[in-house]
Amino acid sequence: MRGNQSNRKRPLWGALGIIMLAVWLSGCSMLEEWNSSGLGAPGIADAATPTDTADPSETATAPPIPTVVPKPSETPKPTVTPKPTKPEVTTPSPNPTDPKQQTEGKLVSLTFDDGPDGKYTSQILDILKEYNVKATFFVVGPQVEKYPDIAKRIVDEGHSIGNHTWSHSNLTKLSDKARIKEIARAQQAILDATGVTSQLMRAPYGATSASVLKTIHNDNMKHVFWTVDTKDWAGTSVKEMYTNVMSNTHQGGIILMHSFGGRKHAIEHTVELLPSIIKDLRKKGFEFATVDELIASGQYQASVIK
């Protein structure tokens, strides 16, 4: 019985082995089909080491491009245009050093030639100070050297000082060299006495020419003529001089008088005349200025100041 049983078991084990072999072969065949169709286990291909000849650009995966979602645009606010405002208007303060701003009326200049001296020039300066008037003095060299204190007083009290040559010579009759010397010597005397250099020149007798003016301009000076001649040097009466001044003085006028020289006692008439023409010219609306201030104001006549 046992022998028959073992013989019967062998065919059973054999059949079982055949079945298991068939199952195994079937499984291997299915695995090959999965791998060939890309259905193998994930990560196997990615883990393979690339060869040296592989192109990185073919194996690299490009990063995804981020999507920018635009923000909704805000509705622009309307621009408010401000209402224009009127600019503030300011009136500039007058500059005390600017003659154009100091004086706005009709200007006139009083001028005195041939000084200084030790008598009449001081009297004239006293009157001008009393009436608060500034004038212009055209001085000659020897008188400046003789009375340097009076020359300095002219400048110290706010008057202008001008060059009237050294020896009161007619410049049109002198050579260029002599003219230059006449002017330069007087200029040096003025500088020594007052500490200032004159920028104004009046030729003796008013005698000028193109060459004379050229010499004056080369020294950076202007020549000053006159519009009213009182002829005080000739001893003209006070009444006649007064009428002449009051009738012929106009805006920008320059009145010629003297502070020294002329006929005996002639300048006494000038001293007597001075207060009356100051008061009465002011009543007519005139204001007194130095020649420098007159030039700065632009009220002078181009034919008179060159």
Quickly list its features:
single chain, six-stranded parallel sheet, TIM Barrel, 306 residues, 11 helices, two-stranded parallel sheet, alpha/beta, 43% helix, disordered N terminus
Brief account:
The protein is of the alpha/beta class.
What can you see in these coordinates?
- With 306 residues, the protein is of the alpha/beta class.
- The strands form 2 sheets. Strands 1, 2, 3, 6, 7 and 8 form a 6-stranded parallel beta sheet that branches. Strands 4-5 form a two-stranded parallel ribbon.
- It is 43% helix and 10% strand.
- It has a domain at 102-297: Alpha-Beta Barrel (TIM Barrel).
- The radius of gyration is 58 Å and the shape is elongated.
- It has helices at 2-36, 56-59, 99-102, 120-130, 141-146, 148-156, 176-194, 210-218, 238-248, 266-283, 291-297; strands spanning 106-113, 136-139, 160-163, 200-201, 222-223, 228-229, 253-258, 286-288.
- The chain is built from 11 helices and 8 strands.
Q: In what range is the share of β-strand residues? A: 5-15%
CATH superfamily of the domain at 102-297: Glycoside hydrolase/deacetylase
Any guess at the CATH architecture of the domain at 102-297? Alpha-Beta Barrel
CATH-defined topology of the domain at 102-297: TIM Barrel
Low-confidence stretches: 1-7, 33-70, 72-76, 78-103
SSE succession: HHHEHEHHEHEHEEHEHEH
Using only C-alpha atoms, the radius of gyration works out to: 58 Å
Give the helix proportion (percent range).
40-55%
CATH C-level class of the domain at 102-297 = Alpha Beta
Number of separate strands:
8
How confident is the prediction overall: mean pLDDT? 80
- Give the termini separation: 169 Å
Structure classification: alpha/beta
Shape designation: elongated
Largest sheet: 6 strands, parallel
In DSSP terms (H or I, runs of 4 or more residues), the helix count works out at 11
